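Researcher: I'm preparing a figure for a lab meeting and need a structural model of a single chain. I don't have an experimental structure, so a prediction will have to do for now. The sequence is pasted below. Please return the structure as tokens so I can convert it later.
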Amino acid sequence: MKPSINATVLLVDDEPNVTDALKRALRREPYEILTAISGAAALELLERHHVDVVISDEQMPGMSGSVFLSAVRKQFPHTIRMILSGQASLEAAVRAINEGEVYRFFLKPCNPTDLAFTVQQALAHKRLEEQSRRLLREYQKQASTLARLEHHSPGIMSLDTDDQGAVVVDESDAECDVNELLAQMEQAMSAR
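Model: Understood. Here is the structure written out token by token.
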């Protein structure tokens, strides 16, 4: 039984037998598989579907894989890009890496196990990047809230500590109205 779908992979090649072979290589994986026979058709699919990974042939009529992946990088920067080539040309590899910022360059025919494993690694990498972006946004929100609190109540973020790192409370701190401080914090939080 196939596990529930957790990612979408787009296979782009002008030869249907190649996309069929790639689909077979990924058949046991929890992916929705989309296919396109050209870069233009693939870009149309990307407009309509969220795609996590694109695997494209390099040599296709109309638009090469590296040109297609360069367009994907610009329009869908968080989509992982991989390229397949039947010819191990250094020029094609350099172009794909420089223009499309590809995650991996495969030679045809590629090893099905290697392909499946690489897609798994790429998706794990993508999840880590997404988590990192989410944590950065949370940090920025918290830093902004703390800055507003400090602006409304200067010194609120300052603590006096002794030589062992314990917080020192002096008598002026005792005069602080806790309810007023909480109201200010609540007001600052609602302002975001």
